[in-house]
Input
Amino acid sequence: MKTWEENIRKVVPYTPGEQPNQPDMIKLNTNENPYPPAPGVEKVLHEMDVDTLRLYPDPTAGNLVRAIAAYYHLEENQVFVGVGSDDVLAMCFLTFFNGKKPILFPDITYSFYDVWADLFRIPYERPMLDENFHIRKEDYFQENGGVIFPNPNAPTGVEMPLADIEEIVRNNQDSIVIVDEAYVDFGAVSALPLIKKYENLLVVQTFSKSRSMAGMRIGFVCGNPVLIKYLNDVKYSFNSYTMDRTALAAGVAAVEDAAYFRETCRKIIDTREWTKTELKKLGFSFEDSMSNFIFAAHETCPAAELFQALREQHIYVRYFPKGRTFNHLRITIGTREEMETFVAFLKKYLSDR
Output
């Protein structure tokens, strides 16, 4: 090893979902929304004055912060925005998880958490989910340097009851607790009302899933004004212009079209419930998902075999081959037509086996 290599910060990077490009593909592997963004988003982009792109964007992201605050009935100083929830979460790790005690997050969860912890040299422990892939709230009552978990969890789709979340927050008032709600809009109950009661709670959400804007990269976190100020202090010490002009304008348009937002979420929920019924008929088992995906295992056909068979038909799902998830597929909910095609292939494949 060369001397200069000794000073390089080395981490095992996060592995994002595959982004295939097949004209006939059914893409059910990265939890994207199958419907386009709100009509107002397209209108804003068409009407944008290109000449303004020579100017820096508003570093405070004021219009977007105001729109989010108004929608969720919060004050502006309770909202922080960033380039997707990944950027927001990374900023939270950097800002709040700086103690010597380990932070806590589940052993099966969003796989970026341990990457950030390793990158920022944060000690961590990963309490195991129970045999049904549920978070055990008691595992988070121990001494720690912070707590983070998704609700619903990923990749399992399991929702934790709000009462259990409140118990975790109440038992950790000397630590920051972050609830990652990337999938909350697909039928789960948000912890946002608790931020008025607990000053140590942060709730993170994203435009990538329920608002159909994964390609635009918009995320936000809500919490008490003191925590939001700390986040902004770190942001301005790192990169003051995190949000570009197009994202800011499109984000406002997306928030303002509440009716379209509710309609697309309802369609995905309806299709998810139909898919659950069909998968059970085919011999799949899974915990009840409250997200826009289903984390399923088949009673006789290995996940690796199904993953490959689907892939050969240009139907892409996500497979996590290591540890306790080795026999599960994470299946994003597409349009009803896409899911009917997916189920029809499974019926034929499993019957011909």
About this structure: DSSP finds ten helices and 13 strands in the chain. The longest helix spans residues 258-281. The mean pLDDT is 96. The longest strand covers residues 201-206.
